[in-house]
Specification:
alpha+beta; 5-stranded antiparallel β-sheet
Length: 88
């Protein structure tokens, strides 16, 4: 699962998998916790991350929704995803 961004100790990843399930989503990892985020709504699907990190991830997703959707399309076609600017 390639890393597409990193900020504030949070790693953002997306699977290369034509059979990956919908909705379009990405994975965030912070220390030993994880979250799955719906790209279309920028809402947390599942998470055990602290609330502060969840808020950072969803804010970042809102800023980069179009890029995330473009990466989702690439990943679903088995193509290489591109890095996305970190949250500053």
């Amino acid at each position: 699962m390639p890393t597409i961004s990193m900020f504030y100790g949070i790693i953002i990843r997306m699977f290369y998998a034509p059979d990956e399930h919908n909705p379009p989503h990405f994975h965030a990892i912070y220390q030993s916790t994880k979250a799955t985020v719906d790209i279309r709504t920028c809402e947390i699907i599942k998470s055990d991350m602290p609330n502060k990190q969840n808020k950072l991830v969803t804010a970042w997703a809102e800023l980069h929704k179009e890029e995330l959707l473009a990466n989702w399309d690439l990943a679903m076609n088995g193509e290489t995803v591109f890095e996305i600017e970190a949250l500053k």
